[in-house]
Write a structure and sequence with these properties.
This protein has about 475 residues and is α+β, with helices and mostly antiparallel strands. The chain is built from 12 helices and 15 strands. It is about 55% helix and about 15% strand. Strand 11 and strand 12 form a beta hairpin.
């Protein structure tokens, strides 16, 4: 058990780590490629005709400042910003030094103004702001150039992030992608780990194992969990049915074997008494026949349960087939004083395995004859509707309690103890009939008739007229 737990933990860690690394590398690569492509198409500053209003304001300040000395440039910028809600940028022509706000957003503007001498008034579009230039003037004995820029508006998240240092931006990128990829990897690996654990438990014989954590999901993992649960349910049902059938067969074989042993012992005890000995030998023969019949029925039922690959069909004329079954079953019915009446008529053919279909109908008719009182009639009715045919077999026997009708097609089921033994059956006839009809993609069900008697109905599809 300890080794299994270690193996499961190793599986969980391994697949989680692989998925996480794969997702993380894909996301980081995608982000980097997107960034490089974005940089290639990034907006480049462009020059256009100077804005008349800003140029008028610049001319006014040029007239005020021209030739003045001891002008404090920073104080001038603050005063201009408070008064006009715009930025006044000042460039020292001799050194190309630009006096501008210290925010990171202005770095592009400062770099551009340093590299480009603007002798004539123009407006430069920087995508996030527009800057209008003036002609150079002399302030404090040196040549300067004035620029007016709009207030920077950076309300978008992308703009805020772009103002952060590169190292901090990379840290946020790695952290967010790490968390997203880890959550994504866990969402993929949890169902796989649950499926691996459930498969191991099912392989160990725990047939009640189900996946309950993810079977309500609407994605492919939910479909996988539901398919696994359906498979486990069907497997548990099949194994339980086989175990129950084996127990029933063992129990049913024990009774005739016990009677056979008793009859042999009595025959040996009455050696010399021909009449008594013959009586016990006849009993032995009867029990042997019963064993042979039961084993044949069990083999037939087992073959039907696993004959999907060997199931062969041909065009069968249903009316003639049912007539043939009625004629065969009438010999047994006559010995009990029961009459079989065939009513209704269908035309055309159905696709069926004639041997299986004859076996199914014969079992139902013989079962009805067994439980019909003498001088009664077993009615077989054929009808046709759309692309289906219906065959019903009704008797006038004691019927079956309503709560037990659904169990009639269970192997070895008995309404009361000794019912099948007294009638000479094995308790497998209806189970064999059900398997045969289901192989034909049909339906079979039983219901009590008003008054007395049981009615078994078969519905078969695909009728060709």
């Amino acid at each position: 058990m300890l080794k299994q737990n270690k193996g499961q933990n190793k599986f969980a860690l391994g697949i989680s780590l692989k998925l996480f690394i794969a997702f993380w590398l894909v996301i980081i690569t995608s982000v980097l490629i997107s960034y490089l492509i974005t940089m290639q198409f990034r907006h480049s500053p462009s020059q256009e005709q100077a804005n008349p209003q800003k140029l008028k304001l610049l001319t006014l300040y040029q007239q005020r400042l021209a030739g003045k000395t001891h002008v404090k440039l920073k104080a001038l910028q603050h005063k201009f910003h408070r008064k006009h809600q715009q930025h006044l940028l000042i460039k020292k022509v001799a050194t190309n030094k630009v006096y501008a706000p210290r925010n990171r957003g202005w770095s592009q503007v400062k770099d551009y103004l340093k590299r480009h001498p603007l002798n004539n008034p123009v407006t430069i579009d920087f995508d996030f702001t527009k800057v209008t230039s003036s002609q150079p003037i002399v302030i404090n004995g040196e040549q300067f150039q004035l620029f007016i820029a709009n207030e920077l508006h950076r309300k978008r998240l992308v703009s805020l992030v772009s103002q952060l240092p590169i190292a901090l931006r990379l840290f946020f990128l790695l952290t967010i992608s790490f968390l997203c990829c880890w959550l994504l990897a866990k969402s993929f690996t949890k169902p796989l780990i649950a499926l691996q654990k459930a498969s191991r438990e099912l392989g160990e014989g725990k047939l009640a194992t189900r996946i309950t954590q993810f079977d309500q999901r609407s994605d492919e993992f939910g479909d996988l969990a539901r398919s696994f649960n359906q498979m486990a349910k069907q497997l548990e049902s099949n194994i339980s049915a086989h175990q129950r059938l084996l127990a029933d067969v063992s129990h049913e074989l024990r009774s005739p074997l016990t009677r056979l042993q008793l009859a042999v012992a009595l025959a040996e005890k009455n050696m010399g008494n021909n009449a008594e000995q013959q009586k016990h030998l006849n009993r032995c023969e009867k029990e042997v026949d019963r064993l042979d019949e039961m084993i044949a029925d069990v083999l037939t039922l087992s073959r039907l349960e696993h004959s999907h690959n060997t199931f062969t069909v041909e065009e069968v004329e249903l009316q003639g087939l049912v007539t043939h079954v009625v004629n065969d079953c009438q010999y047994f019915a006559t010995s009990k004083g029961v009459t079989i009446a065939l009513q209704g008529k269908v035309s055309g053919f159905i696709l069926a395995d004639s041997k299986l279909l004859v076996s199914a109908i014969s079992n139902i008719v013989n079962n009805a004859v067994k439980y019909s009182p003498a001088q009664q009639v077993v009615t077989i009715e054929l009808s046709q509707q759309d692309e289906q045919v219906m065959l019903s077999v009704a008797d006038h026997g004691p019927g079956v309690p309503n709560e037990m009708i659904t169990k009639l097609f269970t192997p070895f089921f008995r309404v009361a103890d000794g019912r099948e033994r007294s009638s000479g059956g094995t308790g497998l006839g209806l189970a064999i009939a059900q398997q045969a009809i289901q192989l034909h993609q049909g339906e079979i069900y039983a219901e009590n008739q008003p008054g007395s008697g049981l009615k078994v109905t078969i519905i078969l599809p695909s009728v060709w007229k």
